[in-house]
Amino acid sequence: MAAEAAQRFSLARPAVVNFLRHHPERIRELTLFSDAASEMAQLSLSLLAADAQVMTDAARVCREYGLLTNDGLTVALMRRHGLDHLASNDEDFSRVSGLTIWKPRII
To answer: What does the alpha-carbon distance between residue 66 and residue 49 come to, in Å, rounded to a whole number?
Structure first.
């Protein structure tokens, strides 16, 4: 959603979230996220649950790499399940050792 908003509204990436918070009506103009969600529903995906230990691990990851909570949780879940490839445009993940980051682009 952020990538589409940045492109559609000619915004710098750091300004996207703030812009959408102050202009929630503009979210209605974004369609790629919805399209992607529909496509993902057709895939064979597994959802990973977070338990208390994963939350503790996430807190450690946040401190170690200077990540926000959701990013730390992502890394902790990935490590628990032996995953090392991540599709994300979030530059913060580049600070985490042992991850291969794939950066999706809007075409």
So the answer is: 23
Query: pLDDT (tens digit, 9 = 90+) per residue, 13-65?
Result: 889 999 999 999 999 999 998 888 888 889 988 889 999 999 999 999 999 99
CA-to-CA distance for 84 and 100, rounded, in angstroms? Answer: 6
Residue boundaries of the structural domains of the chain: 2-41, 52-102
Residue that has been written with the tokens 């170690």 in this structure: 64
Q: Which of 78, 79, 104 is nearest to 90 (CA)?
A: 104
* Cα within 13 Å of Cα(67), Cβ side: 24
Q: Which residues contact 51 (CB under 8 A, 6 or more apart)?
A: none
For residue range 82-107, list pLDDT tens digits in order.
999 999 999 999 999 999 999 988 76
